[in-house]
Structure formats: structure tokens, C-alpha cells
Queue: 4 jobs
Job 1
Amino acid sequence: MKKWLKVAAVAILFYVHIAGLLADVPRLNILNETVRAIYFHVPMWFGMVFLFGVSLFFAIQYLRRPTVENDRRSSEYANVGVAFGILGMLTGMLWATYTWGSPWHGDPKQNGAAIALLVYFAYFVLRGSVDNQEQKARLSAVYNIFAFAAMIPLIFIIPRLQDSLHPGSGGNPGFNVYDLDNRMRLIFYPAIIGWILIGLWIADLRTRLKTLNEKILDLDENIN
């Protein structure tokens, strides 16, 4: 990852955290000051979907050109994507506690997100249950395609077809319908970009670290 992208990621999130906590927000019924959570909760889901998409790309690349590097990148981007998903779930539960009265309501989008994460948890269970490296990589790549295909309807399609407390679902208006304060957009969109860049940075670091660890293990085996 380019150095200027790393600097941009840190600068953007520094701005998002300061402006997100101190800038004025519209006074909306029920939400009140908790609307600031949109700067931290929603971008996590954008980051998760983006990282899962990158993981899918490397999974397809592995099936086309089987290399350890493609498998490693696919695995690590999925790993960081799950971490973002968990953070998105936790920030959403915290927000729901103050706006809906409890952290979990069985809302269709909550349930869909939880199931999508479980599908990806199964991806790592699959990787841990196969010893043969080549077989593990191939099965994981195929399962990755299935997991991404399952995630899209679970998060974006099915919740919109049912009654939901989330904005933009089941006839419930989205934020843009009743939130016309452009100042929020000046923080919200950079937040999405910043968190995605941080996710890419972390995944890149994990990939490089795993590569170095495997090289060290190979050197030890050769010495012994």
C-alpha cells in the first residue's frame, strides 16, 4: 500500500473523529445526538463489504492462477472484513440501545448481518479443518464465492423486503429523506473512505507478516 494512502487514511480518520464528535448535527426526533454514530457504524459495513469484495477477487484469481500469494491475500482480506463486521455489529448494538431501547431487536438487517458473519466464520472453520495446503486454498476460494453471494441478499436485499427499524428498509425512509444537513455528508463520506483505507492497510500488513513468518519457518526447516 502506497505511503501517501496511509497518510491520507490517518488524516481522514483524525478529521472524522474530531468533526464527528464536535460538529453540529441536526436535531432529529429519537436520534438526537446519537446520530453521530452514523460516522462510525455505517462506514464499518461499507468497509466490510469492500474487504469481502477484495477477498472474493483474490479467491477468483487463485482459481484462475493458483498461487500461495493469492490464497494468502484472499484469506487476510476476509479476516479483516470479519473484524470490520464485528465492529459494525457492536457499534450498531450500542446505537440501538439508545434509540430503540435495547441492543438487539431481531431486526431483519441485524439478523441478516449476523447470519452473513456466521457464513464467513464457517470460511475460517473450513480453512482450519483441511491440512493439505492446496486443497485448503481451492476449497476456500470456492466457498468464498458462495459466502459473498450469500452476504449480498442477507444484508442488502432481504431486509428491504421486510418491516425494519433501519432507515431505507420496509418502507422506512432512508437518512437522505429526512436528513438534509449537508454538513453530515462532509464527514460521513470521508469516514467511509478513511475506514476502507485503514482496512486495506491492516490487511496488507497481515499479509506481509504472514509471508515473513512462513519464510522464517522455511529457513528454520532448511537449517535443521
Note: The chain has a mean pLDDT of 87.
Job 2
Amino acid sequence: MKIGFLILAHRYPNQLKQLIRSLLLVNDSRIYLHVDKKSNELFDEISAEFSFNNRVRFIGNRYRVYWGSFNQIRATFALMKSAFESRTEDYFMLLSGQDFLIKSPSALISFISENKEKQFVMNFKLPDSQWRDGGLNRLSHFSFDIPGRPWFSNKLNSAIERLHIYSGFKRKVSFEQYGGSNWFNINFDALEYMVTYIKDHPEYLNSFKNTRCADEMFVQSMLLNSRFRDSVVSADLRYIDWSSGPEFPRIIREEDFEKIVTYSEKFFARKFDSTIDGSVLNKLITYIGQNS
């Protein structure tokens, strides 16, 4: 069982190096890395470290990624295309640069091997009360990003949102909508289906242009409107603490170590921030190394 790790990264070079090195402990794995185009220093430092490693592949067509923007989807799809074109892995997991492995490589491989026909993608049908306006506004309302001017972007989008509400205008969407966590885990067949579907149906990708937070609908809506729907399990295999604070999600600290490594069917955790607590990462590196 060969696993491809698809990583979206934008900061913390040393932490990203730690993540990449830990993933390379997973036998026969390959890493596909998209570094935010705004983060050139990060790209230079990481490429200097790993560009000669044939198990680390850098995405050349980089995007300026803003929170919840269409470029988040474009960067994700670039990773998917690169992995599909390689045709060397059996299973694929989308990660951020602030995720980290919390189980042994052998435990991860064993679990994926036993569940290779399943797609682990958190999902729920929209509208759903846990999202504002049931989540349907994420595709039906316009949103724009002005490069380098986040304050202006926020003001503009607030005005556009008010216009949508007052006018009642909504963009038309031609498919049933599903939402959930954007951190997916899928096999090659599902990956092939999605890459091919978008090639044959460019209007699907275009329906996500100029939207906000629709990255949490992109994979779900494609898979759950396809023949793969019965293979989708609503789980993302990640430990994320949305309740404890002081951040939401909570930045994982050394005091959380024992708890996160004992969770069943959780193989990654997020979020980590080495500027707040780097010791937990060191403990995880030791733990993974001892059990690899």
C-alpha cells in the first residue's frame, strides 16, 4: 500500500520540514507539496532541503491562497492532478502544513490497507444548521479577494453580501450540495474519477469561482453525486479540538500528547504551531521514530 500525502503549506519552514521527514518514514510514500505563492522564502528553504528527494514533488504552478478563497480549491486540485499523473500511489491524504502524524507509520499503512475501498471524507447534506444560512450561500453568493488588500476585500464582500440579502439574487447551482471538512482521504479510483470529471465538466470547477469557504464543499459535492457515494465514510481521520480553546481550533500542546496518540482511528492532528509549543512536535517525532 503506497500513500500519497498532498500538503498545502504557507508558513513555518522548520515545522514543515519536521512534517515532511515524518511522512517519509511511511514506507513507499510520496509527498506532493503546494507552497503558497505569497510564501517565496518558505518555498526556497523547503526546495533547497528536499528538491533532490525523488519522493517529494513540488507543485510548480503555485497560487496565492487566501482563507476560504477559490485559490484554495485551485491549489488543492493542482495537488490532485499531480498525484493522478504520477500514478504511483494507491491512496491519498490531504494535509495542511500545520498537521502532524500521531500514529506509527505501520499503524497508518495497516488501517488504509484494510479500508482501501473507502473514502474518508467528513460530509453532510446542505442546507445544514451548523453552517450559517445552511451553507448554501457559500456557492450562491459572490465573494472576491483583492491581492494584497485584505481590508478592502472584507469591506467589499460585506457590501456584496448585503446586496445578495436585499436583492434576493442567488447564483444558480445545478448539483446537490454537500459540505464538511476539506481534509480528505481517498483511493486512486476516486481521485481518478474527480480529476477526469473536472476535465470533462469544467463548469463544475467554474461554479466555485468567486466564492467563500466553498473548499469545504468541493470534494464532498463531487463524490456524493457520483457512483462513489456508497464508499464515502463521514470521517476525516484527524484529531481536531474545537471546544477547549484558547484558540479555535485549539493549538495542540505538550499536555495534549497522551490524549491525541491514544485516539482510535485518528492518524493526524491539527493544529500545531511551533511558535506556541514546539515540544509536542519533538515528542511526536520521537514517538513515531520509535514505532516506525
Note: The two ends are 15 Å apart (CA to CA).
Job 3
Amino acid sequence: MKADRALLLLRDVPLARRTTLCLGGAAAALVRIGDVDTACKAADWAREHAIAVAILGGGSNTVVDDGGVDALVLEPTDCSLSTSAVGDAIHIRAGAGLNWGELVAFSVRRNLSGIAALSGIPGRVGAAPVQNIGAYGEQLADVFVAATCLDLVSGAIETWDAARASFAYRDSRWKREPQRPRLILDVTLALSAANTAQARYPDLRAALSAAGHDADAAPLRALRDAVLTVRRRKSMVVDALDVDSRSVGSFFVNPAVSSADADAAEAALGARAKGQARANGQARSAAPAATAMPRFGLPNGDVKLSAAW
């Protein structure tokens, strides 16, 4: 592995150890992005040498080809963290290279609510808006204020607000425009100064109740612990001691359908369950209730169904 001192450009960098699956070959070149100036220089270098650019964060949703990556890989490393009071909210600005879990832990220590339920999600802060990460009733879009980006095509530094990000369920404009790649340099979130939060999902409520907490007003630390407990039970927390936890993220999203389609699916499942019960000689009352199908309302009026269920 050789370095270009002018840009601290690393050549032939093995990527396996930079991913949770620990697979794959080397990058033709890699630059660790700790500030705006380095990011701009790296983008300029890639354009001058006509080489493709790839962005690698925590490597938890990445499968690297064994043959390597013929590109300049940009690895965000800015782990800066600062807070400021803006009206009734506390704004947290975090560098793109900060581990997402560390940001959540920081917010919980400061009694700032809004992202405690997002504990245990692997990756770095810079990737969070791209996917509009979410879990257990919370999502990044609900607390997003702005992100500083570098347009890797034009070289322009941009500030994106929520409107420009155009968030949707596990989606954003960053994700929808791969032909116009942008490197997120930092993210600002608006959190509430409150030490409690309501747990909305049954498994979390059960975990909190078992620990002696009120699921409707759980301390943030207790909510975070419950989330981590539930996720660890499913090997969803990256842990070197758990061989089943080499997460590459979800390969699917829960289907979002119209309310009419959700009603039709529920009715069809109920009818099928009753038919199966009759075929098995069970009483009609013994058939599973159609209302057991999990469904969650979305802001646009659609209904999110549970793919896992």
C-alpha cells in the first residue's frame, strides 16, 4: 500500500477489513476525508485522472467484489460533534465519519430525544440521511435539519435542507440520483430536551415492562437498552463476539400500500385462515383473526405492512 503525500492518496487498499462481512478485494485508490478541503482535492483528482468515485462509510451494507474496486474510494473520517440551542430544540451537528451508534449514545447522555430508538443501526452519520434510516417508530427525516454535501460532478459545496432531500420511506434524493453522486460531509439534527419517550412497538414495550419501566414514558436510557436488547436477540447489532451479527443491512423494505390494498390483503388473509381452519376440522372461532395483521399508518395516508410478518 503506497501513499501520494500531496493528497494522502493510498493505493491498492484492501477493503475487506473495512466491511462487516470482511470480504472483497482492494480499492485502486482511497482517500480518508476528514475535512472539506481534502474532499474537494480528492474530487478534483478523480476528475483529472478520469477515475470513478465510490463512497465507503461503515461498510455494513456493502459487498465488495473479490476482484477489487477500480475507483477512488472516499472514506469519511470527520468525527466532530457540536451542539447549539435553537429555540426549543437542541441542534446536533455531527461529522459524516462519526459512528451512528456513538451519536445516539451522546444524545441519550444529554437527555435529548428523537433518535434513541435508532440505537444499534450500523454505519456512520453520513450514510444515515441517504437511507433515511428508521426503526421502532422513529426515522431520521423527523429530526433532520440540514447536511453539507460535495457534488462530486461539479465540485460545488451544497447545503441541503429537508425539502431538498425529499425524504420518503427508507429513501431520499441522494439515493434516487446515483448518476449525480454527492458526498455528505456533515449532518445537523434537531432533538428535543426530554428525558422520556414512548415506545410504540410491542417487542419494545414488552422489554421495557419486563425491566420495570413505563412503556408510555420510558427514560431514554431504558429505551435505548431495550432496543439494543431486542436487536441483539436477532443478531442485528454488529458485535465481534457474535458470529451471526456481520450485518449487511436489510435486503428489503416493508411494503407501503394504499389503505384499500391493506384492507383487501387483511380480508384475503382472514378468509384464507378460516378456510384452512375448516379444512383442518377446526371451529370457525379458532381461525386466526384477520386483524392480527400488523399495519402502520404513514403520513401520506398509505399503510406500511410488515414484510417479516
Note: The chain has eight helices and 18 strands.
Job 4
Amino acid sequence: DGDMRVVAWNLEFGNILHQHERVTRLLRAMQPHVVLLQEVESNQRAADVLTVLRRAMPADNWTLRLGPNSGRLRSGIATRVPAWDVPTLTKLSRADAPRSTVRTAALVVQGPGDRPTLCISAHLKCCGVIGGPEDLKRVGEVQAIRRAIDASMDDPSLPSIEAIVIGGDLNLVGSTLPLDLLIRDGQSVVGGQGDFIIANALQPDGLSAHTWQKPNQAFSPGRLDWLVYGGDGLTARRSVVLDTL
């Protein structure tokens, strides 16, 4: 009671629909209140994604929002608790590229203790190396997210936001700077002090934190997917990495 289960789910290349039977089974087992989706394909329909969610938990009323397309992929967010749209996070662009699209989706949900909680699904630019163009794009995307969060705090159409949860594929194959900028002084946004807190989730063996692996790839298994949060008294009761292999 009083807990909210958040799943950040980076399902490669539209697998929420391509592998919908497995997805339904896993959703039914996890019983999430909020699902932060990445890699929804641009041609996949919200109605079909909702069908998967409703098959898993048919007794609940689901709200789903898909972010704008960015090439082939976009992000999404779904919840079975009361929720409000976030106009300032509907479509984001980097300051250095006004026509760019940051892959985000967001809702304010009725969170733990009925506190309005801003939840953001994020999928940053992939690939690259430290200081490379892809890494710099990730930095710009995070800055756009933080600007939008600040703007949402002053949005009169929303309830007063008391907590924030951000999760998704940050693609930290270059530097950790995007993550550093995402969490820096994040508690001040919701009236506290310090950085956003990182949910330190481990694989079932309790030894590794990697969230991605694929054989015969140039990249080693790594921690690409993260979840951070902030808000007075908000704590992570338990955090795990779901090993889909």
C-alpha cells in the first residue's frame, strides 16, 4: 500500500507488439502502475499498444501517450492510475537544433501518497564515443529535458508536482556527462536539496548492473538504461533489472 511500481522497458525495435504474447505475460507478472516505454516504432498504433496492456491487466483503466516520432522510433508512457498530460514535454528539441526531436513522453500521475508525480520516459541518442557528436547530442537532449521540467513546475494546468521519476535508455556508451547533468541539483526542482537519486538495480545474480547485451557486437554488455527520482520522502523500496534472456 502506498507504493508505485515503475517499469522502464526498452523493448528493442517495437517488440511490445512484435512479441506481444511474451510482453503480456511479463506485464501480468510485474503488475506495474507506470510503464516507461522506449523503441516503439513510428508506425505502431497507440490502440494496439493499449490492447497489450489491457490484456495483461484487464481490470484497470489505462492511459497511454506516445511521444513524437524521431526517425523510426519514439518513446511512450502508460499508467493505470489517474494522470494528467504535460504540455511542456509534448515535443522537445535541442537548443542547438530547433528542428530536432528528443524521444520523450511524459505524464503527471497520482503517485505514492497521492502526490502528483511527473514521470518521463526518455531515449537519448545512441552510439558514439566520449566527446563525440553523439555524446554531445545526448548532453543537449538532457538539457532540453531539464528545461521542460522547470517549465512544467509553473504550468497552471497541472497539479503541483511533488515528485519526479525519469527512466529510460540513456545510451551512456560515451561519457557519463548526460547522466550527471540529468541528476544535478534535481531535488531543488521539488523543493529539496541534492541530486536526483539513481535507482541502483542489479541483475538477478546480484553481481551486474548491465541492462543490455548482444552477442557479436562492438559494444560490451553495459548499463544503458537508468531510472532516477526525486521528491521529499520518496525512496526506492526495491530495484531490479529484468533479465529478458
Note: The chain is about 20% helix and 30% strand.
